[in-house]
Queue: 4 jobs
Job 1
Amino acid sequence: MPYQDPQQDPQAAQWPPPSYAEPQQPQPQQPQPQQPPYQHPNGQQPHPQPQSYGQPQPQPQAYPQPYGQPQPYGQPYGAYGEPQPYGQAHQQPYGQPYGPPQAPFPGYGQRVKQPWLVPPRPGVRYHHVARTAVHRWWRPIVGTLLILAYTIAAMIVLLIGALIINTMINGGTYEAGSGDSFFKNDTADLGFQLAMLAVLLPSVPLAAWAVQRRRPGTVSSVAGHLRWKWFAACVGLAILFCAVSFGFSLLASGLVPDTSSSDGPETWVGWSRFIPPALVIILLVPFQSAAEEYVFRGWIIQAIGSWTLETRKGKVGRAFSLVFRTPWPGILVGAGLFMAGHGYTGWGMLDVFLFGAIAGWLAFKTGGLESGIAIHVFNNLMAFLLPAAVGKLDIEQGAVPWQYVVADVAPMVLYALAVVWLAKRLRLPTTTPAAALATQPASAAHNVPVDDGMPVDDVVPVAHETAARQEMTGAQEMAAAQEMAAAPNDSYRTAADSTPPVSESASTPHEPGPYG
């Protein structure tokens, strides 16, 4: 066959011709010896070793490609099917494998958002509940100012509403009553006075949440809420107290000469005159009494109890610290303020003070306000309903004979002893539960003693580890991450990781009963 130029005859370029071509036999691939990968001293993934000329490049394991199929020019390894700009090279930091970017080491370089509400320390009594991990000396003061501001604002709003109602009733003109009367109606005036005190009730939970960063229910009890079953048991004892107190009052009235200037004996006013004020009393007295308990027994005792002065040095400082770690400063201050809020004089002041002190002591012994609220509600119901039955809606305050003080205090002492006995019999928990450890930071679970109300060297834990991690620089984060990667999985353990869990018996002196 004569020679033909390939440029003139295209079929001549194929040699040998297709009809005479012999089939090609595939040559077996010789396995290439694999070299062991280089191990970095710190255990990190080394930079990929360069391959010799002619050897196929290894493909990423996350996105495998057929053997020998080349990648498009300039396209880096990445997500399958994801378009890449022309000529852009895949940039990976030294020692990092191909694949999705690795997240930074948890806890380093990330500002972890802490929850607003901080649980109380486990195993503490009622007066130390407010001394949480975020306690500062100024929080009780700011909380008290918030309660005062809320009270003033609520009373102003209530006063404006009363003026509007008075004007609407009187046909567009305001007509004030004589003396202390505001509506020229005894029932309306009594309701207004009780409402002025009842508006204090939301102020204490608000201050606990907004200022002290704790659950509002921790003011009610160490359980974090009002223990309704235990409250029902205290109500039963309070009803017995009312019966005993009424009997003691009858005995005292026989020992005190009658100096009243009334024209005749007091008589029943009838149901038509008794039912309206009775409804107002029954509806508002529970809120009025509970508000006073939350302010004078709840907030005052816990606010002063959070100042333990445990960091004070010297003889004087340590002496004050021994006193302020007990519940008695809060109990006495709360009872004194409670006495100042009433208009009694002489022996009557002692009567009110002892009532507040006994209610505060019960809050400490039972771990909550349930017993104090129960006795306060039924004492005030009896104090308002009995005079209302004879037509007296204005409670007369002032001097009180000592016989009436004894007749009032003696049943209260019996009630307090019965409450403490029943709480022990029912094994009522009087300290915060140990379950609070589950929500505490890891570094805050150390050195948490059981608080029995006596002077102890209790230390308020603070999450130092979290704060230290938040202050780390970028270089420190990289060094810490390399150290963690080089260490074995179970060799890098902090003190918090090796701390044994706190048992139930080590944090709560009483087993939980049915009223927990």
Job 2
Amino acid sequence: MSSLFLYLIKVTACSLLFYGYYLLALRNKRFHQWNRYYLLGATLLSAIIPLLHIPFVPDDSTRGGLITYTSRVLEVRDNWLPMVTITPERSFSVADYAAGAYVLGILLLLFRLVLGLRRMIRLIRQHEKIHFADYILVPSAGSSGPYSFFRYICWDTAVEEDSDEGRHMLRHELAHVREKHSADKLFMELACALFWCNPVFHLFRKELSLVHEFIADEKATGQEAPAAYAACILLQPFGHAPELFSNTFFHPPVKRRLRMLLRPSGNGRAYLRRLLVIPLLAVVAVLFSFTQYPGLQVTLTKVTGATSGNMLFPDEPAAAMPADTVPDAKKPAAQRVPPPPPPAPSQKSKTPPPPPPAPPRQKDSRGFDTSRNALYTFVQKMPEFPGGDKAMMNYLREHVRYPAEAREENIQGTIIVQFIVSPDGSLSNIKTIGAHKGGGLEEEAVRIVKTMPRWQPGIQDNKPVRVQYALPIRFMLQASGPARSAADSSRNGPAANKVYTFVEKMPAFPGGDEALMHYLRDHIHYPDVAREKNIQGTVVVQFIVGTDGSLSHVHTVEKPKGGGLEEEAIRVVQAMPRWQPGSQDGKLVVVQYSLPVRFLLQ
């Protein structure tokens, strides 16, 4: 709903700029046709421009930030369960009620418009019609004065057509018919119904009705002196049009109509006033439509996979790349650290002659370097692990090991391994980038990449080329405190007072993972405070499964989200039935377990 309200705010702001220009440069000026089309165009553009997203491409100086193509993120955890996503039951918020009221207002105004059209059509059908070349006269006794609706002119029989007043009125209504002013009014009624909360559109409608009268008065006067026509307007009793979208001769305010009728034609500056619409359109487009196109500065990221022991869960959503992995080349120019200046040459040493200039590099029509040693960061076909992404994930799943030192010191984080894929598929220049995590994470990530087989090389212009590539590997621990792995304590054998983090047979909810998912969806409730404050996120609940399957030491880890999410996750875990306990070497053991629960608002 927030996107709807934001769009309405943009429409109002956009129309306000158009209306401000109209008041300053166009209102009460003699170029009535220009004002007519400007008001119609301003209404239409105010509704369309906020919907446009025109990409703005920075210049070349800001586009040099791309460093590598980034593949999927690999998560390495000591024990992991598929994440449960909790979506709250549908409930109506204040924004929903506001949106409902807005839609209800639209329906009421559209219903009112349809009723008006129906009344007008019924009124025309009830009376005799006299057909002429370009209009249809509908005489009726006791009507509220002459008024027009598309090709129909409803005429009061009390007014003599051959009198001076009658001729003026007929020419006036004929101008409305020939200029198709009823179509303009119907369009404005629709716009005011759809955007009834925008006061500027109602001002547009009012001004457009007056401009219609200015045009009709000007055409009705013709070559005659405007004084006689002005006297006709003043002497006639004022009535009203039966519907908002009809055009009546008796349209107030009379003062503005007479002033425009008697005003002399404008001077040469009127042309400049109309030209100001060009910079106005540019300003409105920049403010409401242009969006900066990141171009080649965005690192491409695919969906993530996650490894847990010997299990692969490929549907885990991708995590955003941490800021500390952005190399210096990708940072803005103001944040780059300049290289140190070269040391001053010794006075005793002689300056060596400069080396010969390097041969010019060959470039294609698009500016790509086509020399043999050119290094690309993005090509038409990116390098690929043999067998594709699935094969790479299987390889990583089988070969990556969480370093023992990192597990003991509770070190986790994302390691970005950067390397170059040569035209023959070999990997070189393997290194890690970003902040150092320690605990052997960098060494393990580099080791696994070095042991990979040859890749399928990148292709540019149907030729294999050297491509820089990056592979993010996210190491994540879910265990802490006194917990220990079965591998670390297998030498002493399992004991009842020892807590394990990974065993041969992990604890399981009665009925398996699917039954656990159903249990959580049936019993967990989205907290009202979190829903009202739009709080969402993943809560990791950690607990100990005893040898009898009971759950204890239930608590959450990681930074609290607030809004009652942690309390609700703990409550539903504490209410769970007994689990099937874990076992090691054929004996039941105590196991520490982590359950990630993702709260998501619709």
Job 3
Amino acid sequence: MNKFCHLNTYSKLILLIASTTLFFIFIYITLYLYTVQEERHFYDTTYQQYEKEVKSLFRLNSKTATATIIDVTYWDELVQFTKSKDEQWFQQNIVKEFDAYEADYIGIYGLDSQLINKTGTKKLKNGIEISPEILKAVRRSRLKRFYLSVPEGIVEVFSATIHPASDPKKNKTKPEGYFIIARLLDQVFFNSLGRISSSEVVPVNSNYILEKEDKWIVVVLDLKDWKNQTTSKLLFKRPFTLNYKNTKEILFVVLLVSLLSILIYVFCTKKWVYDPLKLVKSILETTNQSAISALKKVPGEFGYIGNLFEENNIQRKQLEKAKRKAEESDNLKSSFLANLSHEIRTPMNAIMGFSDLLGDDSLSENEKKQYLKIIKDSGSNLVSIIEDLIEMSKIDANQIVPNYAAVDLEACMKELYSSLKVTIPPSKEIAFYLKTSSKPLEQKVLTDETKLKQILINLITNAIKFTESGSINFGYSVHKKKGFLEFTVEDTGNGISKDYLKVIFDRFRQIEATISPELTGLGLGLSITKAYVEMLGGKIAVKSAIGKGSIFSFTIPLVIDENVALVTSLKTPALVQGTDDEVILVAEDDNVNYLLLKKLIQHKKHTVLRATNGQEAVAMCNEHKDISLVFMDLKMPVLNGYEAFEQIRMNRPDLPIIAHTAYSSVEDREKIMQFGFTSYISKPLQKEKVFEILDSVFADFTQSSRN
């Protein structure tokens, strides 16, 4: 090492060049030996693959004819023909349908080995000769494929014994005759086979001996006669262009590398010092991106400096991008707040305005009904807006997790179709239908059925909203190999422009205002839908064009439920025999909510008791044994609804208890039903829902007693 340090610069460079040259010579000698070995291995592998390909292709080419002769030879009419020799039947069923057999010759022989009738193309002028020995061989094997040499060339023959239709396997009855199909393997056939296999196909005689060729891969296929002896051969040739034997070029490269090594010294100073410093200067003066990229490619410290410059440049761009995004987010929030104010004030305006108008005694009954309908619709719209906001906040807070369970997809889709079909306004001329899957799933899949339904409901509701006439369809397809299910919702509605397609799933984005002022919303529906899809492990996409409609599609993982479902009987609270005056306890701390529920229940001529907290509800259920139903608010003082439910169940396990609460999310509903409540109704209360629950609990046994 000390001697090397004392060498002059020239000597160091000579030593460096010599070392580099020796290294490259060693590398290329090693590569040369490796190349020779790889050439041999690659040729053998390619030959084996090509041989398999040729045999598979030739076997596949004969499958159609084989299948045809199998189908034809268990045919009662053909059996009858061997006995009747009806020329008209032969013309009608064989000659007329000759083209369908894709053959050049068809012959039918009797059990006495005599030809009954035949037909063929001009390619085989003299037909083919089928000897009794061949037919005996066919009789033994029932089905036989072999090759014959004829003056026109090579003929591929498919032969089979004839049996009744009741014996498709040909093992119950004796043969009634023989059916022969033959096709000429002419130049047209070889050209077609060559195009398919990217080969040159040439027939050769049976004595041909295969010789290895450097520039060709050659495979010989034996064509055997009915005795299983080679009667001819087919030669398949494909170019083998890979050439590893370029030793002169390798030596030239070694020489070139050696010469280039001599020039390294000349360029070292310029390449390692001058050029990098020039790039640093350019970067500091102009922040030139191309200069940064060039500096990064320089080995050593200058490359590291280039990376630092690039990181600094990226951080600066990210800050600028974050600033723009923050400004855009601020604008979106401002727009959202303005829109939220508008969306809430619009239904509130209708509710308060028409409520005031209802105080006018001069209103007719029709006007009152109209105003009440407007108030109800506006209230529903307001609830929908609030639910979207709550759902989005839960998604942001990661409070929603998928509840995976076995789902019958076919039943789920049919149920959605039935429930959504009735929601289409009669004023809209829409053909609504469910697309049947070409490969419907027979097994159940593991997914969150509730969220899957909500995704489809959101997309279909949107389609109905933006389609005045035309059609709406939805369905699913199975991609077992790729492991996912794909759902589509297609409509012929207004369509979406390219600009909106880029942001259609972003929050607070709305396209309704550009289409019709009557179509309003917060712009959260598709954002929630996208969040649900991603929660289930899938992706969502949309294709659309203005005036042509839209196609929304999304995927979820395909996970088959391997568990066998056990049929068990579910314990449900006994239904109470209804009368016109049942005693119903309403556990509700809010006076307005209690008054509303009381009026609805009294409309059904039932007696209403009230408890203002959970503890009072428990005491009243224990004291009043005539209470036959409880409406339980879940959020009450002293004891909440869940705690009160548990204590009531201890003493009165069969008492129906209905949960009524402002918690309206799917997760809340699942929690309530799993806790054991008889049923569930969310606020704001709807008259029809309350009546439906009362009717289901107080089953009317009057009709059954009459019968």
Job 4
Amino acid sequence: MADVSRRSFLAGTAAAGVAALAAPVVAQAQTPQGHRGPAPASVRLTRESHRVVVVGSGFGGGVTALRLAQAGVPVLVLERGNRWPTGPNAKTFPLATAPDKRILWHRGAPQLFGKPVGFEPYTGLLDAVVGENMTAICAAGVGGGSLIYQGMTLQPAEDVFLTQFPEQLDYARLARTHYPRVARMLQLETAPDALVDSPPYHAPRVFAKRARAAGLPVSKIPMPIDWTYALRELRGEMTPSYTNSAGSIGVNNGGKHSVDVTYIKQAEATGRVTVAVRHEVREVFRTRNGQWEVHVDRTDTAGRVLENKIITTPTLVMAAGTMNTTRLLMRAAAKDQITDMPDGLGRGWGSNADRIYSWTSATEDFGAVQGGPVVYGSLDWSRPTEAITVIQASIPSVAGIDSRTTMMVGYGVSEGRGHFTYDSRADDAILRWPADGDAHIQNTRIGPTVRKIARGDNLTDTTGIFPNTWHPLGGASMGTVCDLDGRVRGQKGLYVLDGALMPGNCAACNPSMTIAAIAERALDNLVANDVGTII
């Protein structure tokens, strides 16, 4: 980690919104710590029944809740984390440069760079799932991963899309209807020139200049951001959050169109959707009469269990995120809580070939203060089976110190896949990832492209040091476990509509837009065909 202080490294990895933060923070938390709270005998048990239960409030859960509610269906959304309200000058989210208890999910052992930190237990934002050769980062909170992602919102080209996804999804229909619908919901915009030309945005300009000089395509990246907030920051009208990259783990000022303020807000406005926060699903069962039974812990913000709930429903939608959806279903299958699950469950998992680099230059002045989150990227998709994307991500200012460092992030098409196995001792499904899973796309495309842009500057491959991903995909994939609309094969009333449904890779794009578009497509079909019969 030459030329980069530990504090600068933490700030930069958080700013880039990819997995290098994960391993140093929580990679040593191999075993969940369990509940911190009263003995089970002192916890009240209640029972409820609902027409539809959705587990998770990220992109898949948000789309599901809104579209079912608009079709007249009442929905209960179970979210294990908190609400994170924002607004000008708010202090809701923690800062990457001064992390506190809000950054970590209470079940993980609080560690920074392998050393204990004195954080109190909290229902925080980031939860690491540690597997063999890979750590996957999961978000907790209303809005799921959209709370903490940088916001790159990319629609893959058709020929790249078809390297990973079945043609039966009908890309033309997705491109005509569902991707544009997501773009409207998230109110996508690219950064205005007036902002990009300002002093804090020198690092993005350097990236664009270097990439063009290397003969690479360069374009602005669509983002779910109202950029007038950043312009107002430049004018001194609010505390900086965008213009100094302080919003790398959640934007306090607002203006970011995350799922909580788009899909979930509209869903709740129908009057048919209830979002239950700090409701963590612990077990899933199929009852003898064909209903679904969900065992839930309601906790306080310290993770103490206040109430046990058993919730029964004829329709259960798993949208808890790739890792948690897959692990819950695999545990249920292994313990015969759900019988006859498809054989492909737990297979087809991928990291989206995520890669993050710190980039330190002796000749370029990236700036002690760098505006963010993301402006430019290079979408090199001319060879579909080897398509990659590389973007620049700014880092938060650390005490005004100019480390002459910024970040580059890459991802690309990869056939590398891992799988989960059930460990009865841990009562958990453990990810098994081959150490060379994404080696081909990394060694032949992402790495060489990043080095072309850096042109001899110092690069640190942080993912090579700490193998991890913020974009886990697969585990209950379409085709093997589910149909294209997320119906789990042979399990009436059970659906998967999140990253677990994806085929392990999102075609050289970060996955948020495709997860949402495929969920939108699925809900069109489910409303037409399942509402009133199964749902």
